[in-house]
Write a structure and sequence with these properties.
The structure holds two protein chains of two kinds. Chain A is of the alpha+beta class. Chain A has helices at residues 2-24, 26-34, 36-90, 101-114, 151-158, 203-253, 268-324, 331-361, 374-392, 411-427, 460-463, 485-495, 535-541; strands at residues 124-128, 138-140, 165-173, 176-189, 192-201, 370-373, 396-399, 406-409, 434-440, 444-451, 499-505, 509-517. In chain B, a hairpin with a 2-residue loop joins strand 8 and strand 9 (151-153). The relative contact order of chain B is 0.11. The chains are: A alpha+beta, B alpha/beta.
Amino acid sequence: MPVRRALRPVRRYWRILARHLTRYSAPARRAWRRSLQLRVVTLTLLASSLLVGTFGGYIADRSAEILLKRAEDNARVAMDNKVEYALKQLTLYPQARDPELPGALNDLVNDLFDGEDAARGTSIISIRAAHHPDLQAVAVPKVDATDLITPEMISAVSGDRGGVNMQIRTAEINGQNTKYLVYGSPVPTRFGHVELYYMVPLTSEDQDANLIRNTVLATGLALVILLGLVAGLVTRLVVTPVRVAARTAQRLSAGLLDQRMKVDGEDDLALLAAAFNQMAANLQRQIVRLEEMSRLQRRFTSDVSHELRTPLTTVRMAADLIFSEREDFDPAVARSAELLQAELDRFEELLTDLLEISRFDAGFAALDAEHSDLVPIAERVAERLAGLAERVGVELQLNLPDTPVIAEVDPRRVERVLRNLVGNAVEHGEAKPVQITMATDGAAVAITVRDHGIGLKPGEERLVFNRFWRADPSRARQTGGTGLGLSISVEDARLHGGWLEAWGSPGEGAQFRLTLPVRSGDRLVAAPLPLIPRDRNAEVNS
Amino acid sequence: MRARVLVVDDDPALAEMLGIVLRSEGFLPSFVADGERALAAFRESRPDIVLLDLMLPGMSGIDVARAIRAESGIPIVMLTAKSDTVDVVLGLESGADDYVVKPFKPKELVARMRARLRRGEDAAPEMLTIGPPSNQITIDVPAHTVSRDNEEVKLTPLEFDLLVALARKPRQVFTREVLLEQVWGYRHAADTRLVNVHVQRLRAKIEPDPERPEIILTVRGVGYKAGTG
């Protein structure tokens, strides 16, 4: 395992590097994920760079090749002429030791050089005789051309099977680096052969090739940039309406129902805008219709309320008057007056509760939240119901905190919920104690109302909150009640962003828990009191 | 002396029934059935208290309350079929001192009216001051006048009672329930919004900046107290 051990630090550094990379590239990756335009432009740039680079490179290479080929051809033709001329001149000398030969070689080289085009730069012409060491190599102009004529070339030209040879070399001539096309050819004479070397500078070909390469590069670069711009522009054309659509949709969902997109022309984007606008118009129509319905419903509720309550007030006052005079009537009329009075109370309660429920149904119920101390509210509820509790033999046990429990609630609604819960507990408490417990954890307040009566059957924990639901339809009601109390309480709790839940078990009683957020609008996460009472197990054991 | 009551209600049966009950309780009722004529009837009958239905033909009860309030501080008790927050608060803000929700028990209504009419019994000479030194309010209790910088501030009797209740015990924090009992005469706690709305109205009249009160301070979660600086 030594390899693995050795790799360990490497792997560690790699991990650190990867982490850094992840962190610093996060903004870029986010932009990449979010911007379609950025993605399209980047991909276009990459693809077009690749394409333009390949084609540009090919064109530049091909041009350089063509230029070189032409230079080679020209040099070859010139070389052939020179070899022919040299051949003519050198036939006069049968022997290498001829004393006039070096002079003749010199003159020959000069003659050959005279035909050169000076404008093309400095060509070099050199004659050597590899097989005749006595003969000095001559060159015009008088430069050291040994760097250009390599020993390999010499042997290739002057060997037994020697022939025309060509190579390209760069050497320092006259103090500057120049690229030369070097041609070498044997010149047969009567004393064996000498070698003629013709060196043509490739300066102008190089310059031309460079010019072509630069032109191709510049054009390619411009092309890539232009393509990127075009891609950006085109995506912008498409993305802008999409962004506008997104923004308009956001505004619409924020409730600005009048928002529409501008329809330009007849293209796909105009189609998008038109479809979008149609959708918005339909939505608006639906919403306005629903609002209108809700408004009518509210209006109806309010009207019914007023229209029913006014005659009921009159009836109520008349009944009160008759009720207070009932001693003067005969027993049947007196009892009727009492029944009238009692049933009017029930009727009134039912009407109030029905109107309250319809107000919730119409979405008209408003939370009137203020900072309130919940302890006195609970005490007040207990105090109000003490009379009823005493009548049915139920003891109300309050288990409230000593310090104020301040929460942002609607005190009238909370009081109504508690009145309902405690009233129910007293009614179903079977003359056993009812405990009211309150606790807070800073974020939520919970109030539980526990009775030890007949309890709830499995599944009834949810049914109790249904409208007009009764545990046992045959069972006589003691306190009356409208059958809407718990339904209203649930709505009240919901309006606060709170919970109202029930637990119960046959024979063990029931517990209701109201949980409210301390700050209005906060989301509840947990309740400070358990729904299933702690005393449950103890009770089962005893 | 029998108190004169102006009943503004468009329902003839209810008005007649109210008349029977009020007469039997020792009031002198007069009636008007629509909002348009309510103000003229008010000027003519010069009542001690007004019973005002919120929903009226012609001028709405809220406008009638505003019109009466503009020229008089006499007690107004609204009769309302709506217990919706908005309606009740709107009625109170437009000048009503108290309200009863239909259907009400006759005894409850009479108790509310008596509570509004019961006043001027404690006429002991008493001068109270309230507020920080820079911003002091002087209350002449028997004369029923309130002044700031020697300039009289017009308050309705109810607002006056509320201010006196707070000023008499400057260091005490009053819960809304206690104020309801002391000022409105509710024995059991009722709608605490009565207190909220009237405190706001009172602040609008006596505070230099009602948004940042200095004379009647809110004690969050508890109630109100007088500012002493």
